[in-house]
Amino acid sequence: MSDKGKDKEPQIGDADLLDITHDEVRARALRKSLQRLADSQSGNGALQEMAREVLAGRVGLREALRVSAYSEALGERVAQAREEYERQSPEEREQQRAAAVRYLKAQREEIEREREERQGGHEQRSDRPGTARHSGRDWRL
User: Fold this and answer.
1) 3-state secondary structure 37-80
2) Could you tell me the pTM of the whole model?
3) Weakly modelled stretches of the chain, pLDDT under 50
4) Could you count the other beta carbons within 10 Å of the beta carbon of residue 104?
């Protein structure tokens, strides 16, 4: 059995993060980032634990950030990322910005495809166009 299959517990969905992001695309990106963090072997156990707790729905992200061990670990990681960003050339920064735009576009397209697939399962399936299978028109007492 693969590692992804064992200890699999229910996880929050994108909608559970909308109160923070106010945007379904950014909510999707945030959930995926938390998933990568939870699955990472980066050695930052506090952030990995925080991500797992949030994804499992045991604690909200805002509440997790009030836990000192989590907020300190996140603060350290943000400071490290800022230092890395400041060392980048303007060209590297632009490449990162463009990659982020492409990533968010891909997330939007993925959400739209999923929405279309869900709606496709509920589309009308009749020989007569414009007539749903269970329209109720032929129903009588």
Assistant:
1) HHHCCCCCHHHHHHHHHHHCCCCCHHHHCCCHHHHHHHHHHHHH
2) 0.75
3) 1-6, 124-141
4) 15
